[in-house]
Design brief:
Layout (H helix, E strand, L loop, with lengths): L1 H19 L5 E5 L1 H9 L4 H9 L3 E6 H9 L3 E2 L4 E2 L13 E2 L12 H9 L12 E6 L14 H27 L5 E5 L2 E4 L4 H38 L3 H7 L37 H19 L10 H23 L1
Parallel strand pairs: 1-2, 1-6, 2-5, 6-7
Antiparallel strand pairs: 3-4, 7-8
Length: 335
């Protein structure tokens, strides 16, 4: 049962963190009834709060609550001051929360003090400091004669207890009216964390709906953009699309550019003098060179002719004719 309750409280505090911005260490405002109940059931204050809140806790006691605790104590005849109660932890464990409700800094009613700390402005109804209220049902004090044999004293004690219980109920109902106020109370030696009140639940639902609405709007924007892109692709690039996708002319890459040549500065002696021009090539030489190049191009362009071989008869006749010519030449030489 304890594991289920701790899991439930962890989820509840996580909802308070998401919706109202609570964070560790949690600031817990304790009242006088809560301290008496914790002492009566022999509970450790800070460990019990941390087990209930499932996180680090920082308990605080207001100055008006301290005044209410000390006012209920009997007075020491030696010092004429009230005794320090046993249920009041030391200041190192339970620091004091200074509250100034008037110019004289006089304490006011404990219920009014705690409600003013939880909700300073009743118009906004907001728990600005993220306080957690820790309270309990009133416990009979030692000087209360609830079981007295004297009926008059018994009626007085019962009237005081009724008044205290009404104040406790008013404190819890006033805290529930403010959205985002977790309430811890002690019931039968068990520290309990109340679920979301109606105003807190309304705020939580509103936050959830706003998140859902934002998510839906974002999804619709994405879908509309996809549809628009498809329509633009089907219809072809429009002027607006061209304008959107047109790229501006960029400067050339400086690494790919040719570096400019530096001009040599003329000396004062050479100023006014013209530089010697390079000798121009002779037109004749240029003509001969051009003709030679053209001839080479024509020769390379012409195809070589194949030599045709003559028949054997024509070869023998040519050889006999050549022999007769040679005999006549030799005979003429002899003459």
């Amino acid at each position: 049962m304890r594991a289920k309750r701790s899991k439930k409280y962890r989820k509840l505090m996580h909802q308070y963190e998401l919706t109202f911005g609570f964070h560790e260490p949690y600031q817990v405002l304790v009242d006088s009834n809560f301290l008496r109940a914790v002492h009566q059931f022999k509970m450790d204050l800070i460990p019990a709060l941390e087990r209930t809140l499932q996180g680090k806790a920082k308990p605080l006691l207001s100055k008006c609550s301290l005044a209410a605790i000390m006012a209920a104590q009997p007075i020491n005849p030696k010092t004429n001051k009230p005794y320090r109660p046993y249920h009041l932890p030391p200041p190192t464990e339970l620091p004091l929360r200074h509250c100034s409700h008037n110019d004289d800094d006089t304490p006011i009613d404990e219920v009014e003090c705690l409600l003013s700390l939880i909700c300073p402005n009743t118009d906004t109804m907001r728990n600005k400091e993220h306080y957690i209220l820790a309270t309990a049902e009133p416990v009979p004090l030692p000087q209360d004669d609830v079981n007295s044999d004297n009926p008059k004293q018994r009626r007085q004690a019962e009237a005081l207890m009724k008044e205290r219980s009404e104040k406790a109920v008013a404190l819890r109902s006033g805290a529930r009216a403010v959205p985002g106020v977790p309430i811890i109370y002690v019931k039968r030696s068990v520290m309990v964390l109340e679920p979301f009140s109606i105003p807190s639940e309304k705020v939580r639902l509103g936050v959830e709906k706003s998140k859902f609405k934002v998510g839906m709007e974002a999804a619709l924007d994405v879908v509309n953009n996809l549809k628009r892109k498809r329509e633009d692709e089907e219809d072809g690039p429009s002027t607006s699309a061209r304008d959107r996708t047109a790229k501006k002319a960029k400067a050339p890459n400086p690494l790919s550019m040719k570096k400019p040549k530096r001009r040599e500065k003329q000396k004062p002696e050479e100023q006014g003098k013209k530089k010697d021009k390079k000798p121009e090539p002779d037109s004749r030489d240029e003509g001969t060179q051009d003709n030679a190049a053209d001839a080479e191009g024509e020769q390379s362009g012409k195809k070589k002719r194949k030599r045709k071989h003559k028949s054997s008869k024509s070869g023998n006749a040519v050889e006999s004719a050549d022999g007769a010519v040679s005999n006549e030449v030799h005979s003429a030489g002899d003459d």
